[in-house]
Design the sequence.
C-alpha cells in the first residue's frame, strides 16, 4: 500500500494494540509465578503491547502469522509484527542467521504477507538490513540485499490494510541523506514509511529529529509524505551514559523502559515497542552469558528500574 494512500490502521482496531500472550516475557512469568520479580515483569513488560518477531525459527511462517493476526482480529486489536529473516542476517553478528538464499527469502516473505492477507497489521521490515549495507563486502551483496528489502515492500504493499515500515537505522548510525537513498532504492515509496531506533536507546526527541531529516531527504528525492515510527521499548533514559557518550548497543546498563506503544508524538506516526524488552541483544554488556533473543528477567528488571 502506497505511503500516501492509506488511513491509520489504528483506527480499525477497536481496543488498541494486540498484546502477545506468548511473548518470551509472558512465558517466563507464567512459568515462574513464585519468583519475586514475576509480578513486576508481568505488569510492566509482558502485559504491554509489543511486536511479535518472525524469522528462521518460524517453522511455518504463513500459518504462524495467520494465527497471530487472527487472534488479534478476534478481539479487534491491531497486531505489530517484525519480519527478521534477511539473508546473512545481522551480517554474521549476535543475531546471525536468516534465509539461506535470496530465493528462500522471497518465498518466505511472500508467505509472511499471505499470512496477513486483507487484515490490518503493522509490520516492521528487516531491522538493520539497510543500515548494515556499508558493512557488506561487495556491491553485488549490497544490491542483492536492497532488492530483497524491495521485494518485501512489494509483497506487503499487496496487503490492503498493512502499514509496513522499512527499517531506517538510528540517529547516530547512517546519515539521513544516505539512509534516504537506501530506503528509496528499497522501494519505501510502495509502503507506509520507515522505522527508526529499532532495538536501540535514543531518546524519542532524538529519533524524531532523525526521522524528520530522513523524511525530508526522501522528499528531496521525489518521495514526499513518508511517515515514520519509533521504537520506544528501551529508550526511557535515552542513549547517553554518565560520561555523556552514547552507550554501547548491546545490553548496556542504566537503560529504562520507554513510553508504551501508542499514537506518535512530534511527527512520528506511532511510538512502538518493537524490541521485546528483556530479550537479550547478545552475549555482551550486562548479560554476557545470555544469547541474543533470549529473555532474561535480570535484564527486564533492570529496564523497569532504570539500572
Sequence:
Amino acid at each position: 500500500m502506497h505511503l500516501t494512500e492509506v488511513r491509520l490502521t489504528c483506527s480499525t482496531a477497536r481496543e488498541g494494540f494486540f498484546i502477545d500472550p506468548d511473548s518470551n516475557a509472558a512465558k517466563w512469568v507464567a512459568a515462574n509465578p513464585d519468583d519475586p520479580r514475576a509480578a513486576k515483569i508481568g505488569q510492566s513488560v509482558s502485559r504491554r503491547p509489543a511486536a511479535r518477531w518472525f524469522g528462521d525459527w518460524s517453522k511455518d511462517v504463513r500459518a504462524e502469522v495467520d494465527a497471530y493476526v487472527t487472534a488479534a482480529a478476534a478481539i479487534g486489536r491491531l497486531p505489530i509484527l517484525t519480519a527478521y529473516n534477511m539473508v546473512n542476517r545481522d551480517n554474521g553478528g549476535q543475531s546471525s542467521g536468516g534465509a539461506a538464499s535470496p530465493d528462500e527469502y522471497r518465498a518466505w516473505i511472500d508467505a509472511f504477507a499471505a499470512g496477513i492477507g486483507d487484515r490490518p497489521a503493522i509490520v516492521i521490515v528487516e531491522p538493520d538490513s539497510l543500515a548494515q549495507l556499508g558493512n557488506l563486502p561487495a556491491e553485488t551483496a549490497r544490491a542483492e540485499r536492497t532488492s530483497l528489502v524491495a521485494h518485501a515492500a512489494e509483497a506487503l504493499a499487496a496487503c490492503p490494510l498493512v502499514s509496513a515500515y522499512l527499517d531506517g537505522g538510528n540517529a547516530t548510525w547512517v546519515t539521513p541523506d544516505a539512509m534516504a537513498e537506501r530506503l528509496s532504492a528499497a522501494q519505501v515509496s510502495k509502503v507506509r514509511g520507515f522505522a527508526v531506533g529499532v532495538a536501540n536507546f535514543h531518546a524519542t526527541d532524538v529519533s524524531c529529529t532523525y526521522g524528520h531529516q530522513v523524511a525530508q531527504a526522501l522528499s528531496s528525492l521525489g518521495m514526499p509524505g513518508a511517515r515514520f515510527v519509533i521504537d520506544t521499548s528501551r529508550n526511557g533514559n535515552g542513549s547517553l551514559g554518565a560520561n555523556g557518550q552514547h552507550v554501547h548497543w548491546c545490553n548496556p546498563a542504566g537503560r529504562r523502559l520507554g513510553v508504551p506503544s501508542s499514537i506518535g508524538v512530534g511527527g512520528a506516526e506511532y511510538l512502538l515497542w518493537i524490541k521485546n524488552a528483556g530479550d537479550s541483544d547478545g552475549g555482551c554488556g550486562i548479560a554476557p552469558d545470555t544469547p541474543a533473543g533470549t529473555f532474561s528477567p535480570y535484564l527486564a528488571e533492570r529496564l523497569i528500574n532504570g539500572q
User: Anything to note?
Assistant: The longest strand covers residues 162-167.
